[in-house]
Amino acid sequence: MSRNRAIGSTLVGITRALGHALVSEQVARQPGLLQALDPRVRVAGLFSLVLAVTLSHRISVVLALFCAAILIAVLSRVSLAILVTRVWLVVLLFTGVIALPALFLTPGDAVFTTPGGALRITSQGVATALLLIARVETAVTFTTLLVLCTPWMHVLKALRAFRIPPEVVMMLAMTHRYVFVLAETASQMFESRQSRTVGVLDGPTQRRITARTAGVLLSRSIELSNEVFLAMQSRGFRGDVQILSEFRMRAWDYIGLTAFLAAGALAVWMGRR
Amino acid sequence: MHIPDGYLSPSTCAVLYAGAGLGWYEALRRIRRSLTTRMIPLISVFAAFSFVLMMFNLPLPGGTTGHALGVTIATIVIGPAGSIMAISIALTIQALFFGDGGITTLGANCFNMAIVGSLVAYATYRLTANGAAITARRRWIAAAVAGYVATNAAAFFAAVEFGIQPVLFHNARGVPLYAPYSLGIAIPAMVIGHLAVAGVAEGVIAAGLVAYLQASDPALLQATSGLAGTAELAQPATPQRFLRKLWITVALLMLLTPLGILAGGAAWGEWSANDFAGSRGHTTIATSSQDHPVPSDAPAGLQRLSSLWTAPIPSYAPQFVKSPSLGYMLSAMFGVGLVLSLSLAVQGYLRRRRSPGQAA
């Protein structure tokens, strides 16, 4: 795999994405705090918390929301190991690399100067880097909790409740289904090419293989689109999209929604400038 | 280029959601007007294809790897309206299902990659491939150029969004509240990476796919080819050649706006009340008025009325932009965008008034 790095890493990437989707489906089926709530409450509630995170200007408030996210994760039986590997480490690495130069580049009061005075860390730089990392970690944790605890079909029905046009919801549903079909097809094509490869492929050959695989995948996508269209026609599809929505709000859902909105409003109020 | 939550302020996100909303509305309207039933599965499958394509790691010269967005091939095969919807749907699923890219920044990501990407790819492809036969070599070269330019245009927009954050949103101590780097750092940092890696990946994949379709299924390239006798998929019935020339002229004019800085003096009669206060202003007014005597104070009416309205971007130079040339270009882009939005709103209103029964 290391010899033909691009093909190998594409295979690993596709397999990992499929694996993540499987884990999400399993977590969404478990009993827990978020899973017990109406999907519309989950979407609206977690979105309001993400909004509160971005609106808060104080790191203490953002950290309090991060603690709330951990509490929700524990009560929803989401493994902290999943959050550590899928969210916290990845975000820390990505945002950390972006935030690091801000320590030196943000003008302000110096808290540390390297010998010779070449580099100067400012208190404003430290504050902005910490705020950025804390904010992104917390917001992505809330989004991941929504993704992990809500089956995709429920997210779609919840979106429909928020007046998203039915065509868009239908396209989201179909796309989600065909992402897995096409990802599996692509994975099989790369695997079959990998199994027939002896020795090291140079860059141009790997580029050619990747472009051809993408080309074949495109042809299969078009074929798939025609088949789906014919199947829809055979079922009498005439362009009118109907989506069933059997969600019912219970007392527990209203309590959950109120709690989410109150927590979000409190965070915005306490985190104002 | 997938901006996560927390990098952009809520007000920036709201503005970009509004911008993306306009694009989605117009794209959906055009799709509904053309081939509703066939377009739904086509766009869905193309969104899935773009999603999977983003996972393909492409080895690039120099030992690095990059991945394509898929926006160029989507634009070439299903047109810009279809591409806007397909890429937006792929980005939405990435954000909502895989947690890649934020929820509050979804509007920004769709605006940059789906809307700017599709429109720039379409304009560049049509301009470069102008009149070439479907199987001509110029077609895949045009796809490569379109992919490269579209990715860099999207990256530039993202960089501007990052770069305005510290100027507009900071606390009393000067601590930036969101993305911490100014335009001077954000633009080179984003653009260099995309000029060197991501733009190349998109260009290589787009060119490879167009070359593949030329050999295997050339009919798929006809929709946006602009050749006579070919059906435009989800395209407006407006004369394309005229519109293309108009777009090119507008783009050139926007790029040339900094030339205004080179011109000396001031436009006659466009003086402000402040110009009457200083000796420099007096000299300018006198020179341009054939040395007629200039009053020592500004006329009372001018003084009174000049304070009635304060322009949000005075002198075509947004306060947060240090470079006058960039300020001019940003002002031109903002002005053109505003005019287009108003024009579209009026067109939509008139169309609805003319045919109330034909609402989609």
Quick recap of the structure?
With 273 residues, chain A is mainly α. Chain A has helices at 5-29, 39-55, 59-75, 80-99, 102-105, 123-149, 152-161, 166-195, 203-234, 251-270; strands spanning 110-113, 120-122.
Mean pLDDT of chain A: 83
Mean pLDDT of chain B: 75
Approximately how much beta-strand content do the residues of chain B carry?
under 5%
Task: Provide the CATH architecture of the largest domain in chain B.
Answer: Orthogonal Bundle
Sheet with most strands: strand arrangement of chain B: 1-2
Task: Please characterize this protein's 3D structure.
The complex is a heterodimer of chains A (about 270) and B (about 350). By secondary structure, chain A is mainly alpha-helical. Chain A folds into two domains: about 30-150 and about 250-275, no CATH class; about 150-240, no CATH class. Chain A has ten helices and two strands. Chain A has a two-stranded antiparallel ribbon with strand order 1-2. In chain A, a hairpin with a 6-residue loop joins β1 (about 110-115) and β2. The N and C termini of chain A lie far apart (about 50 Å). In chain A, about 40% of the residues are buried. The mean pLDDT of chain A is about 85. With about 350 residues, chain B is mainly α. Chain B folds into two domains: about 10-235, Arp2/3 complex 21 kDa subunit ARPC3, CATH 1.10.1760; about 270-310, no CATH class. Chain B has twelve helices and two strands, in the order ααββαααααααααα. Chain B has a two-stranded antiparallel ribbon. In chain B, β1 and β2 form a beta hairpin. In chain B, α1 (about 10-35) crosses α3, α3 (about 70-95) packs antiparallel against α4 and α4 packs antiparallel against α5 (about 135-165). Chains A and B meet through α1, α2, α4, α6 and α8 of A and α1, α2, β1, α3 and α7 of B.
